[in-house]
Amino acid sequence: MKLIIKSIAFIALLHIVSCGKKEEPAPSLSAPLALNPSGITQNSFLAKWVRVSNAESYLLDVSANRDFSSFVDGYQSLAVNGVDHEVMDLEANTAYHYRLRAKSSSAESSNSNVVSLTTLIPEGIPLKDAAKNFYIGNIVQSNRLTGKHQEILGSEFSSISAEYEMKMNIMYPNEGAYNWTAADAIVNFAHDNGLNMHGHALIWHNATPDWVENYAGTDAEFEAMIEDYIKTVVDRYKDKVSSWDVVNEAILDGSGDYRNSVFYQRMGKDYITKCFQWAREADPDVVLFYNDYSICSDATKQSAIFTMIDELQNNSVPIDGLGYQLHISYNYPSRDDIVSAVNKSVDRNLKVHFSELDIRANPNNDLSSLTQSRSLAQKDKFKELAEIYSALPDDNKYALTLWGLKDDESWLLDFHGHIDWPLLYDASFNEKDAYYGFLEGLMKN
Length: 445
Ligand code: XIL
What we know:
By secondary structure, this protein is an alpha/beta fold. Helix content is 35%, strand content 20%. The chain has an eight-stranded parallel β-barrel with strand order 8-9-10-12-13-14-16-17, surrounded by four helices. A four-stranded antiparallel β-sheet has the order 4-3-6-7, with no helix packed on it. Helix 7 runs parallel beside helix 9 (271-282) and helix 12 (372-390) packs parallel to helix 14. The structure holds (3S,4R)-3-hydroxy-2-oxopiperidin-4-yl beta-D-xylopyranoside.
């Protein structure tokens, strides 16, 4: 009996000892304290933290999102031995966040505090110098050619287009009577300031003077008048204008039909062929574009435009390039749609002009001021457009032109009738996030 009791006691003791061993807690690790980084540059920083006793290594996370919903490539639970680590290959002027966990062979701590920082702004590289083998353009009005406008156009840009003063209603307001005042001022400004001059636009249904809309003569007289106008204008600026939008917006949205403009009504669809030929006759060297909007977002219109271009090219009509206006939004159209539309021009050996870029930050009018998150979304889209353009083969490049210098001057405010911030500079000429995104996109290639 004694033996049995002894045996039971021994077994119970064994049990207690073994259970005790089983339940002994693993040595826990306290979460590290992340410190502010040092050595922040345009694309790197040194992440730092305080040593945790018993830790053998640390697991570092770096993210561009405060909630760590995604990670910078290579920086998800990156094992580090010391108490600092240089995080590299980052984007300039971008917010990053880091946190870490302590680790031993048997335990891992919870997350440290999150430390946030912003990499430095790239300094001293004007947009025009960041662009490789193409112009960076903007628009001008003859009454905005001095002061800050002139300064920024001269330091950051290498090309200009006239916002409205080189259209037919301004240059040719009355039959037989041209008005060159504003156009001359703009063309001379480009020349005097060493800027490329893009001519915009010879034929546009929306800038046709009344006397042409209601032309009194026969169709043959109409055609002769248009020939004379195109040749007069192209010849006048032969030495100073390097390219022209010959025809602007001839194809309709949705249907892809030819727009029923006065030019179409009077001359039939061949007016396009004839206008290109007359422009070429007036200047054998000038680069000639067809220009339109929604080329990336309206599939029917896109295909109609390329059908028209194929016909022109098959008939040896002197068209050199396609202008993609690109009045777009921060969330539309997609990168893939833009790339695919642009590649169709590359396939046809056409020059590509991103001719009127602006990116709406407020397309649905849900904002009354530009929030940080929308500003960053807009910045990403500007970067995307600059990257897409920079990646084109050199032979297909011409210019990437912004349709306005600063937000409060954008045509979109009137056009859509509500507030937006679609450009690179704010109303006080300060560079926005959009500017830095655009610059980063240009520097990527
Ligand atoms: C706009 C100008 O920005 C406005 O100032 C003017 O009143 C109307 O034209 N597509 C074009 C550009 O090809 O010429 C237009 O510019 C914007 C849409």
